[in-house]
TrEMBL record:
Residues 223-314 form the Peptidase M20 dimerisation domain. Residues 1-21 form the signal peptide. It comes from Sandaracinobacteroides saxicola. SUPFAM superfamilies: Bacterial exopeptidase dimerisation domain (SSF55031), Zn-dependent exopeptidases (SSF53187). This is Amidohydrolase.
Length: 445
């Protein structure tokens, strides 16, 4: 995500939004007071979540915290949707229904921040294995913001009317959590049907800035594995084998030409091989090798081209290595998919004036270009066939952002990096931002 937030002043000059959507100053003061009074609790929750990350579909501890806090606030809570998903419902008279989501899962990253509340131990999984985990994408902040917003909306019930549905979603990082909740009956369990949805995400721009733009905001994504099957053997007699590691290596290089030589140069697309799994011993040529791929795209035609060419490159490599048995040709497994995220223009126009009132002029970016990062939040909204708005919230200290840009880097760190962190000042502020967005959408007529 390039220069996400520092260009705010110049960008805002072209932004035209209806003044009627601005929240009254007394209500903004109540928002600030409510969240400020809750700041210590929110900071404690955030630090606890950060120190105890859980990877996709294992978020049992996180889900229990979400459920406990929502029940204490008077929400009607349902757990176990899509394995670990949590839904809370708060009815507050007649009006529209807003669904607000926070994702809960962490990344398989070993933390290197050195924070006093850093994750310092691997996560033990149900099968007894261990996996390093870290909230390197800010989902700990997302959960905390949701809980802060939920409490503020309870405290400010006189200021809005309608129904607020908040939900903690598992497994965003693997791109299957939203679909898992839908497939587990999220929209058929009797929850109030949404009229619109909202969500938010951390961004490594400065604290106090928000990007909220209409139209396509984030790319579509696919997670897929390609497995090459060869003939294993002793490392000293490669002539008696068909080496799947060599096939995988050739495929990796071949895949890189798909973007540069098949996709239109003016079309944005990304193909990343994030992991290679093959063998264990130095002197053994294994029988198979698996490549874990991630794709990013903005239209179905590009997606279809990427997948078609991956299959062609994989098969060509296998044939070149001497594979003749069709049963041993490379196997592609699609594991997760989400389409592009598209903000509704009308909802952006409703939300942004209140955010400007909260943060100040020049702090809300309304015309930032789309990014290659992806989300699955929209999959629930698309299944429900309702419009939505998704905010990108700055979480980096301003001095770090300025120093990075002076050094020629757009950000001081990136999401999914072992050094990623959320400045503690962004914890209560993020709750305020989401509360203002929710109030703007559920304001009394």
């Amino acid at each position: 995500m390039r220069n996400l937030l520092l260009a705010a002043t110049a960008m805002l000059a072209t932004l035209s939004l209806p003044a009627k959507a601005e929240l009254p100053a007394p209500l903004l003061a109540k928002v600030n007071a409510a969240v400020d009074a809750d700041s210590a609790r929110l900071t404690a929750i955030f630090k606890d979540l950060h120190a105890n990350p859980e990877i996709a579909f294992t978020e049992t501890r996180t889900a229990a915290i979400v459920a406990k806090e929502l029940k204490a606030l008077g929400f009607t809570v349902t757990t176990g949707i899509g394995k670990t998903g949590v839904v809370g419902v708060l009815r507050n008279g007649p009006g529209k229904t807003l669904w607000y989501r926070a994702d809960m899962d962490a990344n398989g990253v070993k933390e290197a921040t050195g924070l006093p509340y850093a994750a310092t131990k691997p996560q033990k999984l149900a099968d007894g294995s261990e996996q390093w985990a870290m909230h390197a994408c800010g989902h700990d902040a997302h959960v905390t913001w949701l809980l802060g917003t939920a409490k503020a909306m309870v405290a400010l019930k006189d200021a809005w009317s309608g129904t607020l549905v908040v939900y903690g979603q598992p497994a965003e990082e693997v791109g299957t959590g939203a679909q898992a909740m839908v497939q587990d009956g999220l929209l058929e369990r009797g929850f109030p049907k949404p009229d619109f949805g909202m969500g938010s995400h951390t961004a490594p721009g400065p604290v106090g800035y928000v990007s909220n733009t209409a139209g396509v905001r984030m790319a579509g994504t696919d997670q897929l594995d390609v497995t090459f099957t060869g003939l294993g053997g002793h490392g000293s007699t490669p002539q008696m084998t068909i080496d799947p590691v060599v096939m995988a290596a050739q495929a990796i290089m071949g895949y890189q030409t798909i973007i540069s030589r098949t996709v239109d140069p003016q079309t944005s697309a990304v193909l990343t091989v994030g992991a290679v799994e093959a063998g264990r011993d130095n002197n053994v040529i294994p029988a198979s090798a698996t490549l874990k791929l991630n794709l990013r795209w903005f239209d179905d035609a590009t997606r279809n081209t990427l997948i078609k060419r991956i299959d062609e490159v994989s098969k060509g490599v296998a044939i070149g290595a001497g594979i003749t048995d069709e049963a041993k040709m490379p196997k592609r497994v699609m594991k997760g998919n989400a389409g592009p995220l598209k903000n509704d223009a009308a909802l952006v126009d409703i939300v942004n004036p209140g955010l400007t009132s909260l943060l100040g002029d020049g702090k809300v970016i309304g015309n930032f270009p789309a990014v290659m990062g992806s989300e699955d939040f929209q999959e629930v909204m698309n299944a429900a066939k309702v419009p939505y708005v998704f905010l990108l919230i700055g979480v980096a200290p301003m001095d770090r952002v300025v120093a990075a840009q002076k050094a020629g880097r757009p950000f001081p760190y990136s999401n999914h990096n072992p050094d990623f962190f959320v400045d503690l000042a962004a914890v209560p502020l993020g709750a305020k931002i989401n509360t203002v967005a929710a109030l703007s959408l559920l304001a009394k007529p």
